[in-house]
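pasting for the record
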Amino acid sequence: MMYNETNVYKNITSDERREYLSVLQQESTIAFIPTFVYLGLLAMVGIPGNSLVIIVYLTKMTMKPLNIFIISMAVIDLITCLLILPGILYFLLHMWDFNDPLTCQSLLALIALLVMSSALLLVSIAIIRYMKMCRPFKKQVTLRQTKLICYINVFMAIVVSIPHGILQGKHSRQTQNPNIVGYYCKIDDSYVETIWPTLNSAFLFLLFFVTSFTVTYCYVRIGCAIRGNGMNVHQRNYLSATTKISKNVAKQHKDVKVTDLGDRTHKKSSLTFGIENESESVVEPVTISDLIDINTETKSNDYINANVENYNVKKFISTDSPGRDDFSDNIALDEFIIKQRFETVTPSYVSQIPVLEKRRKHLNRTHFMMLTVTLVFFLGFLPFLGLNVLLAVSPETVASLKGWSLAMYQLFLESYLVNCAANPIIYSLMDQKFKDICIQMFKIKL
């Protein structure tokens, strides 16, 4: 509701108004003590925690797409702790006598920018993890593309946050004295009676549900892949390939011939060779990319492709092997080559199965860690969204809150900030390498 200050204050002096509003502010300040404690804890954990995340992931770990996203989110969370938390504290201390519209617009626009950036980063992480887990043969993002995605996300957040900030300003609130009106930082009175606040809220709600649906879909698919298959596609192909080799060796190479040993063909970005079983008339393809040591978590696609391109099946044949002329016929030559290849490949690569199993578990922990970060972010938003719906539907109910009910209302209204302190804790609990590096840095002996 808009008020004409000249008419409202015609019978009230400035000192009387100031004293009356200060009493109301004292009551609100007492009710906001739980919120002050909450904000203080977020700052105490978030500032050193996110600083540590930035230092460790930036200087102590191999740079890869996921780490770039983690560093970007830590920067956003650190800015939140340094700028947003003190700003909210200032607003809470001026819930009745606020008189700085520009600060209100700037801070609420910055809040929208940081929150939107975090949400878009989490969506990007979910999509990239989905591609890595469920579409491993598709082209994966590179480090350069990951940085570009981060820049695009921030740009999109800026575009969304600017209109949101413009709508903010001095919002009047009625007191029990009809001749005195207080002001706090909210939608400016000049926009209250327009359609713009409604459109802004509807757009933000739509954006929240779209991002929530996207990350939910991606992680459900990832969970199904982990639970249903027990390992990623590369590992399944590896075990399948080594099993085929072992079975062929067990048959003592009977009725087996090598098909096109010298040719190298690409199938799904990998080198393949065929072992043809004449009795069954089928070709069982074995992918070299499934036999070489590939860690998609730490090596880029360019690195993997380079290894595949440089791979030469002739390396399995001993340098002092007899020449073609030393064999009576091609069958004897085929049997010799198969024996040399299998005796060299099978023992060395079958021994890698426990290593792949360890990496599978690490990959699953990484998925679970990012899922936890995402859940904390979006679940933290639910109380904030619910209370804003209550404010829009029944503003009289919110205005009548006092004491403990007001304290809980304001506390849960800031629930969306929890991730700025929770993320470093999640990394320390679920990323063993991050934990080990931190222990080593501070020389903590457990």
